[in-house]
Design brief:
This protein folds into 3 domains: 36 residues, no CATH class; 131 residues, Sandwich (Jelly Rolls), CATH 2.60.120.260; 82 residues, Immunoglobulin-like. 7% of the residues lie in helices and 46% in strands. By secondary structure, it is mostly beta strands.
C-alpha cells in the first residue's frame, strides 16, 4: 500500500508490479482495501488519450433473450458450455439463433463462438457473420475431439451501433446429428484498429469454469480387480472427459475419451494387457481433474 501511495504522489495511475500472496486472507481484507483506495478508477496508460487498450469484450450468451432471436425447434440442455446449458437441435425443419450486439465503435473485431465437442454433434455448423454491409459464412466442426472452448470465426469490420452480428443455423445439419449454440464473444482487434478510441474501461469478462463439485468420484469396483473394473463418476452436466491411467512409476499406460451424462456414470476399464500392481487414474474435464487409485491382481 505504501508503494501504491508513492506512485500516486508521483502522478502514476497504475503499477508496474503486482503480487497475489495475502490478497485473499482475512476475508479479502487487503484486496478490498487496495480496490477501494487505488483501483476504484481504471489505470490510464500515458499516450492513449484515456482510451483503454483492451476494452471489455461483447459477450452474448445463448439464453440472453434480449440479445438473441430463436427460430425453430431448440432445446436447452444441461451440457456444460461457457455457462451451464447450451441450446441443441436435430430438427429437420429450419432452425436458427441470431445474436445482436451493441458495437462500441467503427472498428475491426475478432469474433468467437464457444464450442462443446461431441461425436454426436454436427461437423457442418453454419455460422453467418454480418459485417459492414456484407456477410461471411464460416463452417465449424462441432464434433472434433477435445475442442471445447472459444473458436475464432475471423476478424471483421463492424460499424458502431446495435446490430445483428451473427447467426447459426441447421442448413447443413447431417441426419442423426445435433447442432449446438452457445455463447458469442467479440473482442476489439488492436492490431487492425490501433487508433480507435473507446470510452468504456469496464473490466473484461472472466471465463466460467466448473466448480469443484461438478465431478464426483465414487471410486472403482471391484478394487482390487482382474482384469476389468468399473469407475463410478457423478457429473452435474453432460460433458466430455479424458480418462488416463498411470503405473506406479508415473508412466501413462492407457488413455480413453468418454462422454458423461448429467447424473451417475460408469466408465469401464480393462487391464488385461497390464501387469499386476498399483495404478493411478485421472478423469479430466474442462478446468477440473479428479484422481483415484486402483490395484490390479492377477
Amino acid at each position: 500500500i505504501q508503494f501504491m501511495q508513492l506512485d500516486r504522489q508521483k502522478g502514476l495511475k497504475g503499477e508496474g508490479f503486482f503480487f497475489y500472496e495475502g490478497l485473499r486472507k482475512n476475508s479479502n481484507q487487503l484486496a478490498d482495501t487496495i480496490k477501494a483506495l487505488f483501483y476504484s478508477q481504471p489505470a490510464e496508460v500515458p499516450g492513449r488519450n484515456n482510451s483503454p487498450w483492451r476494452p471489455k469484450g461483447i459477450l452474448v450468451n445463448e439464453d440472453d433473450s434480449s440479445n438473441t432471436s430463436v427460430t425453430g425447434n431448440w432445446q436447452l440442455v444441461p451440457i456444460l458450455g461457457y455457462k451451464p446449458n447450451v441450446y441443441r437441435t436435430n430438427s429437420a425443419d429450419y432452425a436458427a439463433i441470431s445474436y445482436t450486439a451493441d458495437v462500441q465503435a467503427d472498428a475491426w473485431q475478432s469474433v468467437y463462438v464457444y464450442i462443446v465437442s461431441n461425436s454426436s454433434f454436427t461437423s457442418n455448423a453454419r455460422y453467418t457473420v454480418y459485417h459492414n454491409n456484407d456477410s461471411t459464412v464460416v463452417i465449424v466442426d462441432q464434433k472434433v475431439r477435445n475442442r471445447n472452448g472459444w473458436v475464432k470465426l475471423g476478424d471483421f469490420y463492424f460499424k458502431k451501433g446495435l446490430r445483428t452480428v451473427l447467426k447459426v443455423d441447421n442448413t447443413l445439419l447431417e441426419p442423426g446429428k445435433y447442432l449446438i449454440s452457445d455463447a458469442m464473444l467479440m473482442l476489439l482487434n488492436r492490431k487492425l484498429s490501433p487508433d480507435v478510441v473507446i470510452t468504456s474501461a469496464d473490466e473484461p469478462e472472466t471465463e466460467v469454469l466448473p466448480s469443484e463439485t461438478d465431478l464426483q468420484l465414487s471410486g472403482n469396483y471391484p478394487n482390487p480387480f482382474n482384469p476389468a473394473t468399473v469407475i463410478k463418476v457423478k457429473s452435474r452436466y453432460d460433458v466430455s472427459v479424458t480418462l488416463k491411467v498411470f503405473n506406479s512409476a508415473g508412466s501413462l499406460v492407457a488413455e480413453s475419451e468418454h462422454y458423461l451424462r448429467s447424473g451417475d456414470n460408469e466408465l469401464q476399464f480393462n487391464g488385461s494387457t497390464l501387469a499386476s500392481g498399483n495404478y493411478f487414474y485421472s478423469i479430466r474435464s474442462r478446468g477440473e481433474i479428479i484422481n483415484g487409485k486402483m490395484v490390479l491382481l492377477k
